[in-house]
Amino acid sequence: MTATGSEPFPAVDKCDASSLGARATVVSDLDGTLLRSRSAFPYYALVAFETGGVPRLALLLLLAPLAAALYHAVSEPAGVRVLVFAATAGARVADIESAARAVLPRFYAADVHPAAWRVLAACGRRLVVTATPRVMAEPFLRDHLGADAVAGTELATWRGRTTGWVDARRGVLVGERKAEALREMVGDGEMPDVGLGDRRSDYAFMSLCKEAYLVPRTPVEAVRVDKLHKRVIFHDGRLIQRPTPLIALLTVVWFPIGLLLSCIRVAAGVLLPMPWLHHAFRVLGVRVVVQGAPPPRTGRATGRTGVLFVCCHRTLLDAIFLSIALGRPVAAVTYSLSRLSEFLSPIRTVRLTRDRATDAATIKNVLAKGDLAICPEGTTCREPFLLRFSSLFAELTDDIVPVAMECRMSMFHGTTARGWKGMDPFYFFMNPRPVYTVTFLNKLPVELTHGGGKSSHEVANYTQMLIASTLSYECTGFTRKDKYRELAGNDGVVPLNTAKNRIGWYREKYP
């Protein structure tokens, strides 16, 4: 191993990854090494926003210059301590763990350094040492990069909340502390095969490795997300863009303006007649794009049941924008719509129970009175994937019109798996210029329906494939349970075991 220039270690491009194998052990730093960015600010900003909203994000922005000054003028640990305090002081440990599991992986995955990943992926045993709090980085490193062990800065806690300080026994994991952590992971006398770092404070643990390489600071394209150990399909959190200091500042400044604008847009949707909403939303900065030819309204005098619009599920507003595209309100079935969303909805909503026989009777009853919108995925997905379609809809009618729904947001996600769903429409409308595209596909021909001899599963799979091909999305077999197990640690079903839930159940059963 030979150094280049004034650095004691060669560049990572000199590493022959093909000579490494399943028995090789690699140890790597995180920021600036496994990740292209040397700044951890965006990840602290995500934790700050998810645990404390705009006030905590504003506090982090105020203290960020102090953290940078301490980092360069005093020491790296001093700067890290300020960021840790601003982002976590008083936050529940469970909330930080939830954000680390459901929010951070998507942003980490979009920032993986290709050269470092090439070496890491070639080794069978992968270790990571980082100054970032372990609770923040470990879920992504283990699940999506296949790390076997992670050593990071430990947070001091009290009664389930963080104090804002780091653990006094370990301190911030930099310099010699990284070397100590590495010795604890591999044991005395054992040397990892490869070490990866990017700065002088990494030299201590890199010198313990048989070979060590520096990751240069030159700009490179991130690794494609489908090349990682595990791809991020489900993720949560409200922020869409990576919160750099500038984006974080714009978010803090825009939030009160966006909230006011959102209330105006929601009020317009509630108060104005459906045929007016297309033009009203255009004036308010919400663009509705309609593609394809929607079917005519079914006349009740014909004696026919209504049309079933089968939509992919992007936000809670799918059925509302479908109604705007049609110029008339269309009823929608829901599973877990909040009471606030029900109250504000300009269309009729019908709750399902997840009991197949009961739900089938409910849907048939609504179809007998008119058109109906249904999202057979059962939950939303933010990435270009379609979850498995429930086949129940295919058993109830042959008048099926697939509808491809697509929405574009620039600042805030209009869906959540962990937060209060009643705020979902408000967050969607807080985006400066959101766009909803509604594409009507051709009605399913009789020979491709349940009445034409196809099984309900065949009809559901064909409809899923048809919508996916229209949107250039990928079909999956994932379900609502898969999403909520990964993001919230549950099946996405609220148990009726609290007084509040019992009251809500009683009011719904005996209105």
Please characterize this protein's 3D structure:
With 511 residues, this protein is an alpha/beta fold. The chain has two domains: 12-227, 3-Layer(aba) Sandwich (Rossmann fold); 272-292 and 303-509, 3-Layer(aba) Sandwich (Glycerol-3-phosphate (1)-acyltransferase). It contains 18 helices and 16 strands. The protein has helices at 30-34, 41-73, 76-88, 93-102, 104-109, 114-122, 134-144, 176-186, 203-206, 245-271, 274-283, 318-326, 339-344, 356-367, 424-429, 456-471, 480-487, 499-509, and strands spanning 25-28, 125-133, 149-153, 155-158, 161-166, 194-197, 211-214, 287-291, 308-311, 331-334, 349-351, 372-374, 385-386, 400-408, 435-440, 474-475. The strands form four sheets. The chain has a seven-stranded mixed beta sheet, with helices on both faces. Strand 4 (155-158) and strand 5 (161-166) form a beta hairpin. Helix 2 (41-73) runs antiparallel to helix 10. The longest helix has 33 residues, at 41-73. The radius of gyration is 26 Å and the shape is elongated. Mean pLDDT is 91; it is low at 495-511.
Could you name the CATH class of the largest domain? Alpha Beta
| Total count of helical runs of at least 4 residues | 18
Helical content class = 40-55%
Shape: elongated
* Strand order across the largest sheet: 8-15-14-9-12-10-11
Structural class: alpha/beta
Number of domains: 2
Q: How far apart are the termini? A: 77 Å
**Do you know the CATH topology of the largest domain?**
Glycerol-3-phosphate (1)-acyltransferase
Q: Describe the biggest sheet?
A: 7 strands, mixed
Low-confidence stretches: 495-511
Radius of gyration, in angstroms, nearest whole number: 26 Å
CATH 2nd-level architecture of the largest domain: 3-Layer(aba) Sandwich
Average pLDDT level: 91
- By DSSP, the count of extended strands is 16
What is the percentage of strand-forming residues? Answer: 5-15%
